[in-house]
């Protein structure tokens, strides 16, 4: 059983990321992805939020709240890793702007590839980060299926439409399987973090990241939601790669895994609440129209 669980985790992660990116490509065009990024103010605020405000806040928070060195390392790595592979899926969950989420993910992902090798060694001694080591898996798992999806959408729209339902189901399956497996694998670690109070830092991290992203994510509520969840959910793949290749202490990886898991669960709960809110507002608007 112990040998099967890591395999299931990898299958779930690959299914989720590849299907999500492929499915996103089937729904959009390059023009739609590029269009939101022409808003210079929104691009600037997105970069400021993810590469300055969140890392600075987490760094200062860890100066105020005393934690051991491995826990501190794990949080700093997560704070510096932007561009979550799950962002297009998260945008769907919170009813956000899918095109903006894809463009934002790519922008933050490429930013992380160059940003982390420069900044991380400055704040954590003895850490070596190679840009290509971060870029390679992200290109294979994310940009390649996205590009294939965009190509099919551009040349074979009927096929793209038929494939969307299948990729949506595979993406959801990977998400639910991955969450279930990781909850089982990291249940004891979550309990430990609860007992030590580290989970409190996770909560502050998530709340601040979402709030600052949401507040700076104009011009519309659909872009606010995307930048909110895109900032609250960090780039787990890049963080885990750096954590496993530079640190022997398992607590570093535990913090990365548990924080990422809690971020995903928080966004799922948020998405459910936002969906219910949208439905209530829609019903309220219909009632007003009937009254008129």
UniProtKB/TrEMBL annotation:
It is found in: Membrane. It is a multi-pass membrane protein. Keywords: Membrane, Transmembrane, Transmembrane helix. The keyword Transmembrane applies. The keyword Transport does not apply. It holds the Pfam family SBF. The chain crosses the membrane at residues 12-30, 42-62, 98-122, 134-154, 166-185, 197-217, 252-271. InterPro entries: BilAc:Na_symport/Acr3, Bilac:Na_transpt, Na+/solute_symporter_sf. This is Bile acid:sodium symporter. It comes from Dolichospermum heterosporum TAC447.
